[in-house]
């Protein structure tokens, strides 16, 4: 296209608009690259201008294909929709910076500029891979993995024409959906229901392109192993001597001491030793403590990681790729990672909440409220179990209240609000999570009413110190010591059999201990 074309029609340009040759001189298709500077910012005026320029370009001299494509691009920028030429679909080579229509153009560094470049026929093959959408790239990755069995990340970068960061992002998205399995330096087919495969000698694998020959399972023998493989364990046997098991617990004072003791007892009974680290319900600290244990040389890990937000998902993904067995305690992988192959030992907290509701319903209560501690990682499961039990028993609606931790500055006022709300709603039974909050609520009720258990029945959840309350609290009790022992046994079993053992997710039922806080059966609706 020629710069004189627009200069011959000054009526198409607003006052003050200048025309100059774009940086780089002549356009790649043999014509001149033209830059129109000072395009008005008002959207309607800009649309009129672009439409006029499109008509001029279509009527001017120069290569006909280039004229039609450039005119169509300008018309598309004016209308905000795709435009086809007589020679097919228009390629998007146009950038509009002054308030561009969504989905039409991409930004360049200078604002207020409309820049038109004709397509570079010589560069089309080079630029097309970089313009592929994420969905197209991922389809190509899947096809390559299915054809080759295993593909290097470096080969994907070369074949797709994108950065290694982009390839890793695509592979991570596919792995999270369970469509591929990540290995060191590459990607392979997943083996669902098994621990994530670990590549021990990736350098020994031949280079594979997207269209190269497929690698059979025999070709990978000795290189890709199903299971978490430790040095010296290619035969699937546990190493001689004691097994060092690392454990990262979020706390040492509440709930977790019994879990830790159970894990320690089970590891000791198996001839090993437990190395403990404590975290603080924070993903970055969890990761740091795991790294210290790996540096210590542990052969298996018991972890209760933070699962909050994207950081929790990233942490879980990282744990699933570690070269040692990892067993989750009181945690399961989030919905974003449905096929991650991690063993887990958990308490069925939803069922525990249902036990409490059913006990209160048996005593004649028709409204059972719920009070949950805001920072607890179990409160969603407890809420779900409470809701399911209330619905299945056809109980009357009752409030759900989230409260701050016991001892916070506004605790007395929060307790007063909860107790007053129970009186107003006619609620005479509560499930309270956890013990400290339940005891604090009962103490406040003793000072101001309603009286427990005569006017308000209370069931606590956790049973750490519920028996020491006044009155002693009926409580749901997770089997914490047994949970820790079970997690340790899962880890030791995985060390002994890293190849053929399926993924285990074991849920323990809690129990209900009846004490004095619920009183006797009621003979009226409440």
TrEMBL record:
Q: Where is this region: Disordered?
A: 1-31, 99-130
> Pfam families per the record?
HTH_DeoR, Peripla_BP_3
Arranged from A to Z, the UniProt key words for this protein are: DNA-binding, Transcription, Transcription regulation
Which ranges carry the HTH deoR-type domain?
Answer: 134-189
Does the record bear Transcription in its keywords?
Answer: yes
What name is this protein filed under?
Substrate-binding domain-containing protein
């Amino acid at each position: 296209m020629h710069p004189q074309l627009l200069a011959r029609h000054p009526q198409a340009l607003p006052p003050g608009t200048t025309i100059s040759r774009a940086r780089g001189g002549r356009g790649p298709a043999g014509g001149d690259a033209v830059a129109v500077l000072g395009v008005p910012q008002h959207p309607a005026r800009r649309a009129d201008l672009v439409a006029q320029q499109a008509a001029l370009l279509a009527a001017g001299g120069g290569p006909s294909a280039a004229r039609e494509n450039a005119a169509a691009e300008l018309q598309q920028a004016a209308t905000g929709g795709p435009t086809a030429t007589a020679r097919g679909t228009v390629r998007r080579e146009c950038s509009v910076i002054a308030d561009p229509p969504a989905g039409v153009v991409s930004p360049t560094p200078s604002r207020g500029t409309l820049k038109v470049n004709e397509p570079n026929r010589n560069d089309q093959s080079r630029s097309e891979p970089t313009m592929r959408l994420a969905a197209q790239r991922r389809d190509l990755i899947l096809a390559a993995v299915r054809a080759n069995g295993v593909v290097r990340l470096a080969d994907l970068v070369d074949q797709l024409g994108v950065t290694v960061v982009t390839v890793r992002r695509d592979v991570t998205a596919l792995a999270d959906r369970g469509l591929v399995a990540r290995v060191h330096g590459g990607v392979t087919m997943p083996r669902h229901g098994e621990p994530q495969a670990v590549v021990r000698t990736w350098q020994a694998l031949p280079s594979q392109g997207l269209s190269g020959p497929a690698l059979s399972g025999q070709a990978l023998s000795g290189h890709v192993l199903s299971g978490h493989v430790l040095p010296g364990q290619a035969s699937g046997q546990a190493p001689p001597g004691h097994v060092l098991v690392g454990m990262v617990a979020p706390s040492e004072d509440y709930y977790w001491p019994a879990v830790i003791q159970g894990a320690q007892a089970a590891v000791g009974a198996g001839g090993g030793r437990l190395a403990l680290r404590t975290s603080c319900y924070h993903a970055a600290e969890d990761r740091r403590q795991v790294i210290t244990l790996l540096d210590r040389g542990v052969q298996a890990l018991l972890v209760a990681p933070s699962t909050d937000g994207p950081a929790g998902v990233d942490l879980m993904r990282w744990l699933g790729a570690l070269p040692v067995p990892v067993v989750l305690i009181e945690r399961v992988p989030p919905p974003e990672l449905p096929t991650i192959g991690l063993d887990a030992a958990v308490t069925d907290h939803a069922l525990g909440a249902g036990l409490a509701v059913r006990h209160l319903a048996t005593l004649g209560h028709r409204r059972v409220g719920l009070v949950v501690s805001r920072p607890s990682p179990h409160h969603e499961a407890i809420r779900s179990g409470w809701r399911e039990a209330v619905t299945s028993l056809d109980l009357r609606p009752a409030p759900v209240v989230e409260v701050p931790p016991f001892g916070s500055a506004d605790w007395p006022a929060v307790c007063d609000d909860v107790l007053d709300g129970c009186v107003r709603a006619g609620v005479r039974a509560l499930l309270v999570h956890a013990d400290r909050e339940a005891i604090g609520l009962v103490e406040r009720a003793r000072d101001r009413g309603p009286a427990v258990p005569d006017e308000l029945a209370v069931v606590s959840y956790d049973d750490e110190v519920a028996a020491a309350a006044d009155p002693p609290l009926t409580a749901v009790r997770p089997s914490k010591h047994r949970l820790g022992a079970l997690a340790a046994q899962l880890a030791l079993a995985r060390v002994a059999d890293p190849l053929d053992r399926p993924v285990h997710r074991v849920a323990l039922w809690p129990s209900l201990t009846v004490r004095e806080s619920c009183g006797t059966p009621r003979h009226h609706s409440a």
